[in-house]
Amino acid sequence: MDLGQRRGLIAGAAAAGVALIVLLVAVVSPGHRSSAAAHPPGNATQQALTSTTADLAPVPGGTGTTVKPQPVGGPTTVPPPTTTTVAPPPTVGPEGAFLTPLNFTDVRIADPLNCSAVSDGPNWSTRCGVAHSSGGDLMWVIESAPAPQGTAWHVYALRHLQGYHWLVTVAVADNTGQRQWIAVRAAAVDVTGDGNQDLVYGFHYAEPAASLVLDVVSGAGRVDLHRWIVEGAVQLSAGQLQIWGAGPGGVGYGHEVLRYLSGAWRIVSSTPAPPVIPPSSV
Prior knowledge:
It contains 3 helices and 15 strands. It is mainly beta.
């Protein structure tokens, strides 16, 4: 190949290179974007949206200092509630009861409508009655007879077995009158407030100072409350006992209310009262 031909080929290659450069500049110029650049893939659009941020913090005028927003409804420390423990009312029980269980089995044939059927003998004057207790029917029996020192007494509580059969559960006997009771009474009243009747016995003394002793028999026929009242009286009502009497040592005069709460007899109130003895229920 001669020199003229080589120069012609070099000039043609150079012209082709210039044309290619011009074409590339036209393709990438702003006025001629490719379709791929005009329509980016979906994930590219999503990235552009999610990467957009805005500063929502207020900027006070003239300071140029950004104030960060404070959290709303954040955790708050609340002090625990204060609890107060109240001591339950004092209890009273059967200690010292006059009516006590027998040391032998005593089953009697008795008719509550005929008190003479349960009498201990012709010399005894007998009174009786029935209470519909939570442990079954209970019968109270009070007998009296002349004695060398005043009046002899037999006092019973009997639990119904079946038919005319009754079991003596608690009793007290004074065959000579040494206890010096001037009266013994009984009543069937729901004093425990459980919807069933209880037996309440009242033993009265002339001395000391017109004392009254209470024995309350409930449930299966056992004493669950014994109370000695000086110059006193008791009034019975559904769910409570109200007692009036002199204070310890005969000092002062007061009024007590007793209720059966949480499985025990409790003194729910004790207040001073005028020295007046009201009528007694037993």
